[in-house]
Structure formats: C-alpha cells, structure tokens
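We emphasize that the prediction below concerns an isolated chain of 408 residues; any contacts that depend on oligomerization or on bound cofactors are therefore not represented. The input was used exactly as deposited, without trimming of termini.
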Amino acid sequence: MTDAPQPLAGLRVLDVGTRISAPFCAAILGEQGAEVIKVEDPRGGDFMRGIGPFQDGYSLWWAVEGRGRKSVTCDLRSERGQELFRSLAVHADVVVENFRPGTVERWNIGPDDLPDRIVYVRISAFGQDGPYRDRPGLDRVGIAVGGLLHLTGEPDRPPVRPGITLSDYLTGTFAAEAAVAALYERDARGRGPGREGGRGVGRVIDAPLYGSILRVLEWTIAGHDHLDIVRSRHGNRIPTSAPMDNFPCADEVVVCIAAGSDANFARLCTAMERPELPEDPRFITLTHRVEHSDELHAIVGAWCASLPSEEVEQRCLASNVPASRAYTAADIATDPHLAARGDVVTIEDPVVGSIRQQAPYPRFDGVPPPVPRGAPRLGEHDDEVWGGLVGLSDADLADLRAARILRT
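Result of the prediction step, given as a token string:
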C-alpha cells in the first residue's frame, strides 16, 4: 500500500500554548498533516523544556511533546511582538492557546483581534465563563473537579491520581477533534462569509480541563440523579462485574484478567482447570459472582500467584480470555506486536539524536502516519517563518532581535 495523503495537509496551526494541553492539541493536528508553528517566549521557551527527565540537561519530555512542529520566538507581552504575531496569524487556519481567560485579550491577540476565518482553540482550567473562570488550575485540578480523582484508588485509602497528566492530554484530544469539525464547517459547508470574503468563518472552541474528564465519567452523574448513588473508589475491581482485577503472579508481575461475562468466566475456568466453578451456586450467574466476588477473586488470585505471569497470560489467551500482563516501558520497547505495527518509532532529535518514542495515532487506510520531525531548538525556525513566510527582511529580523522581541 502506498503512502496515503495526510487529511489535514495544507492547514497551518499556530501553537501559542505551553505545558501540555494546547501543544498536544496542536500535535494531533500536526500528526494528521497540518503544519504546526510553535510561538515561544524568547526568554526561555515552553515550560516543558525545563521539565525532566533530562539527558545532559535536555528534557526528554520536551523531546516528545515538542516534536512535529517549528519553533519561532516572539515576545507576546510587548506591543511590537503582538503586532508581529498578528502578521503571522494572517497565514494561519487554527490558533491554540491555554492561558488563563482574558490573557490573550490583554495581549491583543484574542479571537476578535485575528481574522475571523481562524478556528481559535481555547483551553483553560475552568472555561471562558462561569464563577470559576479566573481560578488557577492545572491537570490535577481538572481531574479533581471532573470527578475522576474521587474514583481512583483503593476504597480505604485516599484518592490516587492517574499515572499520567490525563486531563491535559484528554482535553487536547477533544479540542483537536472540535477543531477539525470547525474546519469542516468553515471550508466544506462554508459557514458564513468571512470578512476577507471567500472562505467561511471559524469558531472559538472553549475546552476546560475538567470538562474532558467529566465527559468520560460513564454513568456517574445519571446514577446520582436517578438512584442517589455517590460513586466512590473500588480499587482495581468493578462493583458490577467479577472476576475482574489485576492479579499478582509468582514472579510478582501483575496480569489483568477481565472475565465478567458468563462465556469469559467459563473460559477462565477452563484455563484454570477448574471446570466445576461455572456450576457452583455462588458463581452461576454474573449477579451471583458479584455477590461472592471476594471468594471468587481469592480463587483466581491463588491460581495466578502459583504461576509465572507469562504462563497465566498464555493459559488465558489459549482459552480466549481477555488478559494481559501490565506492560512496563521495557515491555513496550520489546513487544513483537507493537513492533510489527510500528507503534514505537525512532525520531531524529536535533539535540540527542535518535530517540524512540510512541508513534502518531491513529492510522488512515492502514498506513502508519509519517514519523514526526524532532522537537525543535528554541527559535530554530525564526528566519524561515518570520523571514520566509511573513516576509521580514534581514534588517527587520536583526532589529527585532536587538529589541529582544525575538530570541537573540
């Protein structure tokens, strides 16, 4: 199969964000074909450049999150920098930012300051309106207010945050999807004439961090509304299904087993060589298994503890039971399925050279997306963008650097 054309080829995205959520939104659009230009503070650039782990002072987190884009510098706090940004925005389709509400308006680069054909993505902790609008907030606040933190962890212990900055990444994902929908409406459906004529008018997308968490909260709100249930923590179990848990094995590696349905439970019993269990009155239906979940999980747990994890996994898979060892980074790096599908790619980073990272996701027409370019050095593309795209002369660029509007 030949390389498929990238769906968003020809679009240009300005990433004015910092940290994770807005830059990740831009990254998704970039990995689907858009050109992404990251606008960074000349005094040090994106916050993620200073977050570890480090290799010889270079952030490997930045090496992942900064990939697939060009870097230009511009002091957006200065009037001259704001004017410069507006001259760049004329060439853009999408702007993404994640500052506190009102910040870009104070910088004179808000939605009303730019061409109305732009799709303007605004990510914040609490949204652009409402009584909490001006509150500070980062990823963990989004997880807390969205309702997930209360649900995560063991029932007899305080809540535990998920292992990654989930509300940042999830909000960036939702925002990218909304941006594509707004671009379709603008271009394919021609939503209204723009002030410039021709192509239609963009949208302003309001994406608070807590909102993405709230949207994936399953039945939590409906259960409270109709049944007065205040959902809480259940650890690795699910109160409506059994057996379903993460089971330590003899080699101390955990295997997750999801065998709640009657069919999967019967298959698990075959794998465990316990054919009598499906007829046990305690376990004969899902309702019975939930009522006796402690006893059932003890049986499955003892079987897992008696065998190495690889054997537990293979016995389950041989019986068609959904199961997997809990992968570490080392497992991901060596897994043959992930390798065959190209889920880990090698990116050429301008600082540390070849570095393996997770691949773009998902794929179109069965073709893996192109490998992104490495994360740029701060201001690496100043001449290309400000000179080549915007049209500034060498003298203009030198003057802007002398004034510290651009990185010197």
